[in-house]
TrEMBL record, chain A:
Cellular compartment(s): Cell membrane
Membrane topology: Multi-pass membrane protein
Regions that span the bilayer: 46-68, 109-131, 143-161, 193-214, 251-273, 301-323
Chief place of localization: membrane
Record protein name field: Sugar ABC transporter permease
Listed PANTHER family: ABC TRANSPORTER PERMEASE PROTEIN (PTHR30193), INNER MEMBRANE ABC TRANSPORTER PERMEASE PROTEIN YCJO (PTHR30193:SF37)
The keyword Transport belongs to this UniProt entry's keyword annotation: yes
Residue span(s) of domain ABC transmembrane type-1: 106-319
TrEMBL record, chain B:
Residue ranges occupied by any ABC transmembrane type-1 domain in the UniProt entry: 53-244
Localization per record: Cell membrane
Main localization category: membrane
Origin: domain of life: Bacteria
Pfam families: BPD_transp_1 (PF00528)
Name of the protein this chain belongs to: Carbohydrate ABC transporter permease
Length: 329, 258
């Protein structure tokens, strides 16, 4: 059932869209209110819980409880010498607000988002437009561009660590062989370029993802919509501005939200490429959290984790709000 | 949109794709330099890369099985059965959709020292499954929602139990989604680094993502061997991607837009 209707599959949220089904039903009997299609579901009885409990226990034990525990721990303090956790009020948060490394980590993560998300979206959209449609060549090119998304970030990190290496790295060697010695640079060891290099590797990895999302969105725009507007006398720029751009809005939202969450999660690339250095120039919250934790400062590490969690929750709530608005519309 | 501009666009896109592939060509080329395929043989035989691949395979397969079984059962119930707290429990599980691992790392270390789970397989696959579960659940529930519910009523008339209806009637119909969820869980578990770095310290328990760090120390400047190991640890992903790249792409896109 995934093959029959690739256009619709990629356009809607699922290949067998519950939305589509609902719409058809509504059309079939206009008097029927938007009742849920599963009105005839079974009374589950007690045995229904047997289906839910395994997932629930796993989730509570290893996600929900740890999240709450982490918030609690963030109000406790300890050190490597004195590992006993003692209540410390907001000391850990004060540490975050006053410490250079933590401030840099949160500043860097914001910078990182600003450097990667717009670039990935713009490149992805451009590529999706250029590769619109089916056909073997286009499909192969799209698959190649998407490949970095599935690769192991740690391996990608080590590969690019070698590419950007100062003495024998591919980039500097190439620059020197082209007589561009002046451009050769200590890419990962310079505080001014370290974060940008990690961002560039991130763009290399995720551009294919943006392209795939936009490809799906473009495929979901019926050809008739475009044709109709052309028949109406709209030139191609007007078509792009007024017909296609609004239909791409859900894709933009999804990419921004996933981009922000993905940036918050950034760890592997930074750890492998720079360990957060030099001098915290590419430090992100997760690298700092790990180091703080390994230094025996559980409370401070938990506080960093809580801030990350709070930002992720806000983003998730924004997404849910947008999603429910879209459904109601 | 005009037909004339499209071959130009295609050519540019092909050029971009070529540039995009250059780092990977470089990876392959360097991994074969100074010793050719022997580099691969060395990292496999004498450095025990096989053991790390096995560790990753065990952890990944266990995570996939848990996510698919727990996720499918829960999705079936959320979609077809009515029970008290249904919506509340579903929303609770969904709240984990976007959770960064950093938000649970400190408590997980406490759980692990309490249960003695450091350097054990369950120490990784249980949190991997828990973190991947919400995403799998959403995809699966949407699939169950779209199935004809009359199937269930017909089975109910026959007096079949929930478990039989689930396993014999519905589960087989969700196989395409199950494959997507399995692929996604495979990727996130195989590629995971932070928890693996934290919890797998002994040599015999390390997973593939932790390997390059220790190999870098062993081979120091022998870049070809390190690159050979980078290729090898990604081989299962590349093989699966080559076989089912459409499913990969669609699974990830479907999950993203949700």
């Amino acid at each position: 059932m995934t093959r029959k209707d690739p256009v619709d599959a990629s356009a809607s949220t699922d290949d067998i869209s519950p939305d589509g089904q609902r719409r058809t039903r509504r059309r079939a009997s206009p008097t029927e209110s938007a009742t849920r299609p599963r009105a005839g579901s079974w009374r589950g009885g007690w045995s229904a819980y047997l289906f839910v409990v395994p997932a629930l226990i796993l989730f509570i034990g290893f996600v929900a409880w740890p999240v709450l525990r982490n918030v609690q721990l963030s109000f406790y303090g300890n050190t490597e010498i004195d590992p006993t956790l003692r209540f410390a009020g907001i000391d850990n948060y004060r540490w975050i607000a006053e410490n250079r490394a933590t401030l840099l980590a949160f500043r860097n993560v914001a910078l990182f988002a600003a450097m990667t998300i717009p670039v990935q979206m713009l490149l992805g959209l451009t590529l999706a437009i250029m590769l619109r449609g089916s056909g073997a060549v286009r499909t192969v090119i799209r698959s190649l561009l998407f490949l970095p998304v599935v690769l192991t970030p740690v391996a990608v990190g080590y590969l690019f660590a070698d590419v950007f290496e100062t003495t024998n790295g591919l980039l500097n060697t190439t620059l020197r062989s082209l007589g561009l010695d002046a451009l050769a640079h200590e890419w990962l060891a310079d505080t001014r370029t370290a974060l940008a290099v990690v961002a560039a590797v991130n763009v290399w990895t995720w551009t294919g993802f943006s392209m795939a999302i936009y490809h799906a969105a473009l495929a979901g725009i019926p050809e008739e919509v475009v044709e109709a507007s052309v028949v109406d006398g709209a030139n191609s720029r007007q078509t792009a501005m007024h017909i296609i751009a609004p239909l791409l809005r859900p894709a933009h939202f999804a990419l921004i939200i996933l981009g922000v969450i993905g940036t918050l999660k950034t760890f592997d690339l930074v750890y492998v490429l720079t360990r957060g250095g030099p001098d915290h120039a590419s430090e992100v919250p997760t690298t700092l959290l790990l180091r703080t934790l390994l230094d025996g400062r559980d409370g401070r590490a938990a506080a960093i984790g809580t801030v990350v969690f709070a930002v992720a929750m806000i983003v998730t709530l924004v997404q849910l709000w947008l999603y429910s608005r879209r459904r109601d519309a | 949109m005009t037909t004339g501009s499209r071959p130009v666009g295609l050519t540019i896109a092909a050029g971009v794709a070529f540039v995009w592939m250059l780092p990977l060509l470089y990876l392959g080329q360097v991994s074969l330099s100074r010793g050719g395929l022997d580099n691969y043989a060395t990292v496999l035989s004498t450095q025990g890369l096989g053991r790390y691949v096995l560790n990753s395979a065990i952890v990944t397969i266990c995570a996939i099985v848990i996510v698919v079984v727990f996720g499918s059962a829960a999705a079936f119930a959320f979609s077809l059965l009515r029970f008290r707290g249904r919506t509340a429990i579903y929303v609770l599980l969904l709240s984990g959709l976007m959770l960064p691992t950093a938000a649970v790392l400190v408590p997980l270390t406490q759980i692990h020292s309490l249960l003695g789970w450091a350097n054990t397989y369950q120490g990784l696959f249980v949190p991997y499954a828990a973190l991947a579960l919400p995403f799998g659940l959403v995809l699966l529930k949407n699939t169950y929602d779209a199935l004809p519910h009359e199937l269930h009523e017909a089975a109910a008339v026959d007096g079949a139990s929930h478990a039989r209806v689930f396993w014999q009637v519905f589960f087989p119909l969700t196989i395409p989604t199950v494959i997507m969820v399995a692929l996604w869980t495979f990727l996130s578990s195989w590629n995971e680094f932070l928890l693996a770095l934290m919890f797998m310290a002994t040599d015999d328990m390390k997973t593939v993502t932790v390997v390059p760090t220790s190999f870098q120390l062993q081979f120091f400047v022998d870049v070809p061997k390190i690159f050979a190991s980078l290729v090898l640890i990604q081989l299962p992903i590349i093989a699966l991607y080559a076989l089912m790249q459409r499913r990969f792409e669609r699974g990830i896109v479907a999950g993203a837009v949700k």
